[in-house]
Protein 1
Amino acid sequence: MTDTTKERHPFRFLFKLLLIVGALAAVSKVVASKSKDFQGLTESEARAKFESKLGPRIGSDKASEVADQVIPRLKEKGMIKSDAEGAVEDAKDAAAEATDKVVDKAKDAGKSMKDAVEKIEEKID
């Protein structure tokens, strides 16, 4: 009688390897897509989003406890920003928008002045 317990089956090994690699790829894709949901949010926005997703499943108290543990880790990884950083970015955006409006108004005023000067020159000639 022949002992076949040590015999290797390369196709079985390859199949198992492909299944493992596929499972890892799927898990990493899901994790990456979930992390994009929180990218760029402030702490309070991320906390509210986290608690709103988990609250119905595990209760608001437990969701708050889990958020207390997860939010600092997301901040360490640079995925979310502090509320102060968010406020500074909002202020910068508002200042840039206001500057653009001022520049546009100054251009409009310059055009109006030019038109007025041309009309005066026409009347003088």
Protein 2
Amino acid sequence: MTAPSAAATTAATPDASLPLQGVLASLSKFEPPFEIDRFGASFGLHPVRPTGVVEFRFCFKEVPFEARTERRDGRPVLSLSGDLGVLPFTIENAARRRRLRRVLRAVRQGSGMRWIVGRDQHILVTGEIMLDLPLTPTAVIAGATALLLRSRPYLELIVSVAGES
């Protein structure tokens, strides 16, 4: 039998100064799926986000949306907000403004989302949904999809009326 070489001994001996070994050791403590708002801190890669909030942006039906997940009482909640632009002024197109106001009144009752016309005549849509644990990318996408599917016909109608000449 031959004695192990110095290189083999070094490779087999854990070295605390190597960050990769620390990460691999911490991986053995956890099983997937990994929660996206806690992933890095779980493995010593970087500290957890100070807020624990995950945010991203996307467009649906040409409307820019902002999505935000955070934990409330330990449960993940997804909040969506979409920017539908500015309600046209009466002088620009009185008929379109009336139709758009009528549609906005109707969607408030059936879409499950909040439709807001601000003082500056800016139209916003917002909504929230509780997500299942674990908080994975799939859970976030499923939550956003559920909110958007509830309001899709209303959103399409508003975009259509707002785009009229």
Protein 3
Amino acid sequence: MRLSKSVACALGVALVAVPAIASIKAMTLKELMSVTTEVVDVRILSKDSVKLDWPMEGAVYTRLSVEGTSLRTQEPVKTEVFFLGSHDPADQFGTSEMPTLQDTRVGSQAVIFFGKDQDIPGRHNVAYGLHCIYRVEEAFGAPVVIGKGEGFAFTENLKLDDVRTQVRAAHLELQAEQAGK
């Protein structure tokens, strides 16, 4: 029994020492906007998990029902957004790249980047992991988007009004680049 615990410990240490194969790609705001079709400031109305069996059998996604405003166009938005993984222990399907439980609380406000995934059954709006959902908290009497550090679209905490301005400017810049091609 003692030998098997030692072997398990040694294997655990060896696995930690091996460099990670998968990693989250660093993206600026403009880069993230170029690979997603929408950026919204929303309230999360409901949350559940669904089995979609894509990209592998048994894959579980979290579905967020959201309502708010497009930060690209300022139009109202009411839709569902999916991300791979689930916080529900019964699903037993989590991923290291999925947004945090705190970022996806029902009733909370968030800034979400998403796009239509042409390959996923049903062509759902998909938030591509940790990069795409930023929670909004009240701080000093103003809504603040909680930054996620270096390599993310919002590296530091920013007032929501500043995020709106940055997203709109990046949107117009991307449109101008598309028109110039």
